[in-house]
From TrEMBL, chains A, B:
PANTHER family: ABM DOMAIN-CONTAINING PROTEIN, BLL5343 PROTEIN. This is Heme-degrading monooxygenase HmoA. The keyword DNA repair does not apply. InterPro entries: ABM_dom, Dimeric_a/b-barrel, Jasmonate_Hydroxylase-like. It comes from the Bacteria. The lineage of its organism: Bacteria, Bacillati, Bacillota, Bacilli, Bacillales. The keyword Oxidoreductase applies. One of its GO terms (molecular function) is monooxygenase activity. Keywords: Monooxygenase, Oxidoreductase. Residues 23-83 form the ABM domain.
Length: 108, 108
């Protein structure tokens, strides 16, 4: 199965989350898996792509609307994870909310 | 130095490039470095973030305008790299052009 999300025709929204981790797992891996599972059951969720190496992690989640992004931000379990992200897991991060206007796929 | 791009106040544009590699390097690493260097000298270039693991690579480049993205797409050396990407380096990829409307930074 491909790690590339197959999405509907634009427009749709992308939340680009780029992060640098603190040292050690401290429960991060388990929570990350739980959040992906929970996000995927939200209204308006379209897909997710994620990659991490020593320097940086990038997770892009795709959503049907700004309202669905706001609802996910406000989700109670997600709020708990966001707090632990700031207090334990992330050295720094950037979050960018964008509207995808065009896309293009290539498959060999 | 942080791998997170520090960018001007939105709006700006993000090109989200998610890719699955073929086996072996085949000159990819060298060309990727050259393209980052070349892109950084283009008018309208704002920054780049990149992460790759076994499953997926995600590179997000940030631009001041759609015109600057188009000019980079049409750059002659970049065109050569794009062709080699399809013929040699990528099993599959998705390219998404999006307009960043809001961003948020966290730093410990």
């Amino acid at each position: 199965m491909s790690a590339i999300a197959k999405l509907p025709t634009p427009p749709y929204y992308a939340v680009i989350f780029s992060s640098e981790r603190t040292e050690g797992d401290k429960g991060y891996g388990l929570m990350a898996d739980k959040m992906v599972e929970l996000a995927s059951r939200q209204t308006g969720y379209l897909g997710i792509e994620s990659a991490r190496d020593e320097a940086l992690g990038i997770t892009v989640s795709y959503w049907a609307s700004l309202e669905s992004i706001k609802a996910w931000k406000d989700n109670a379990a997600h709020q708990v994870a966001q707090q632990r992200g700031k207090s334990e897991w992330y050295q720094s991060f950037a979050l960018r909310i964008s509207k995808v206007e065009r896309d293009y796929y290539f498959d060999r």
